[in-house]
Amino acid sequence: MRKLFPVISLLLFVAHPLFAQVNEASSIMPYINQYQADEQMLKRKYPLKQSPEYLDRMDRFYEDWLTKIKKIAFDQLTVNERVDYLLLKRDINADLRENKEALETFILTKFSIPFALAISNFEQKRRVGAQQDGLKTAAMFDQLAKDIEKIEKTVKKGELTLTPTQLKWIGGTLSQYQRVFVDSYKFYDGYDPQFTKATKTDYHHVVEALKNYAETVKGLSIKYQHDDDGSGIIGNPIGKEAFETLLKEEMLAYTPAQLEAIALKEFAWCDKEMLKASKQMGFGKDWKKALEKVKNDYPALGKQPELVYGLAQEAIDFIQQNKLIEVPELAKEGWSMHMLSPQQQLYAPFFLGGESVLIAYPTEDMSEEVKLMTMRGNNKHFSRAVVFHELIPGHNLQYFMQNRYKPYRKVFSTPFWTEGWSLYWEMLLWDHQFAKTPEDKIGMLFWRMHRCARIIFSMNYHLGKWTPKQCIDFLVERVGFERSNAAAEVRRSFTGNYGPLYQIGYMLGGLQFSALHKELVETGKMSNVEFHERILKENTMPVEMVRAILTNQELKEDHATSWKFAGSL
Fold first, then answer.
1. Last residue of a domain, one of 177, 197, 226
2. Sorting pLDDT into bands at 50, 70 and 90, what band is 305?
3. Cβ contacts of 84 within 8 Å, gap of 6 or more
4. Percentage of the chain with pLDDT > 70?
5. How confident is the model at residue 367 (pLDDT cuts 50, 70, 90)?
6. Residue 393, preceding peptide bond in cis (omega within 30° of 0)
7. How far apart are CA 347 and CA 355, in angstroms?
8. 82 lies in which domain range?
9. In a domain? residue 437
10. Does 5 map to a domain?
11. What is the edge-to-edge ordering of all strands in the sheet holding 356-359?
12. Considering the entire predicted model, what is its pTM?
């Protein structure tokens, strides 16, 4: 009888389509893993990323990979494998595009680093272990220091017209070249006596010249900050063409104007619901007064972590009692809490989350004004509306599952899946009456309006229509932000190393998941538990590709996005 167990297990595996699809192997996975490994190897091999050598090499690398994957028989792939193929090809093309753009920027801005070739040649010789003649190298260092000093004086005198974007590029490039120069020198220093003796003095001259040039560039950058719109925020708006390219790569079949129309439509819904809650609280149509009352309901200093822990447990109980998703026992146990430092709160005035929840709350060295704003911005009802966004069923559960199911797909990470999933749960819990009181509703609506606003202000900034100060004013006036929190939100958006589409990913990704829920769950094709489990076990990717897998679409090799998840506009 025991000999039949493997057969029975196999039959069960095949007979259950949900289980079979989730655990389906992908013949494209080795290509994805190899591509990532090869790319990282070359990036380690060539340390000067802003150099023709590196950019030319990576250009050939990406072109070679596009040729390689063209040999894959696409028609013989399963839906699961076709998704992997299309996403790998998309990423290679995007990497190739970015590399070409980097080379173009180098060509246009290399006048600011006329000494680049000397450092590049020095590093290339070090890379192959070539012994370098001390006297000849010292002479090269002497000339190198003079060339750096010359361009530094030219820039300092204002004889070159440099934009804030160019100054940022120069600053980053100087840092890179200085690091590579120092590392290359240390390869020989003390190991080759003739080299060490001859070059020591001139080496220090080069390092000093690079530092002085970097300080000059930094000073000019600060000067531009003084000449800004008053916000102190200097970002890098990418423009309409680049923005639309990113939309295409993220598989969004809408124009920026259409996306703004979606945001305004969602804003209108929020306004309507906000007025209902305001009337229930006795403030009539003046919802901002109702919002003020909600903001002032904050825990005493030192009590916020206790509140957060209780809210996290409440959310877990709620989603399980309503049979929305099964939460693994280890996931319930595994999350933790930490506090955000005052410096971190300059960029993150609210919660952050993932493996743990990061709490924003006052510290004793903050001014009384900032303390009050921080407490008001993290009141009980705002907190109740987002703790589950950061923990379970939001980001913490996402990361828990990502590490356990198809982890090779983590390279396809996108805010439309990551942030969209957590925002979708805010919508779903609203529909299941998670908000117990009008105050709770206002807490949830504040965040929903916030995500509508993110679409509008971030797009208008990147399209060159709004300044950072206008974005701050919009958050204060339209959503009811505390001004310091609004400034931190805008600073985070444009200088916090987030991609240009990151902030629009929350609401739009949430709407994508909501549309998919209507298509599959509300029609009875899947239960809530099956639906949510499948999404998490397929791992991160554009939501359109999640839909392709869950609906078993017949994808084409030249697939172009067309899903109108929010309807035609």
1. 226
2. confident
3. 26, 28, 29, 32, 409
4. 94
5. confident
6. yes
7. 19
8. 24-109
9. yes
10. no
11. 336-339, 356-359, 352-353
12. 0.90
What one-character-per-residue DSSP string does 84-115 give? HHHHHHHHHHHHHHHHHHHHHHHHHHGGG-TT
Does 385 lie in the same domain as 255? yes
| Count of beta carbons in the 10 Å neighbourhood of residue 250 | 23
Question: Which residue type sits at 542?
Answer: P
Q: Of 537, 430, 389, 549, which is closest to residue 19 (Cα–Cα)?
A: 537
Residues 246, 276 within the same domain: yes
Note whether 543 and 250 are within 8 A (CB): no
Distance CA 515, CA 11 (A): 34
Which pLDDT tens digit goes with each residue over 197-209? 999 999 999 999 9
- Pair 426, 483 in one domain: yes
Give me 443's structure tokens: 């807490």
284/208 same-domain check = no
Q: Name the DSSP class of 17.
A: H
Mean pLDDT of 125-150: 98
Rounded Cα distance, 484 and 472, in Å = 9
Residue 226, sorted as left (phi over 0), alpha (psi -120 to 50) or beta, turns out to be: alpha
- Distance of alpha carbon 81 from alpha carbon 200, whole angstroms: 57
Cα–Cα distance, 562 to 544 (Å, whole number): 9
Q: What is the pLDDT of residue 463?
A: 96
Comparing C-alpha atoms, which of 227, 242, 481 is closest to residue 379? 481
Q: How confident is the model at residue 110 (pLDDT cuts 50, 70, 90)?
A: very high
DSSP assigned state of 300: P
Least confident interval from 314-323, 382-391, 428-437? 382-391
Question: What average pLDDT is seen over the chain?
Answer: 91
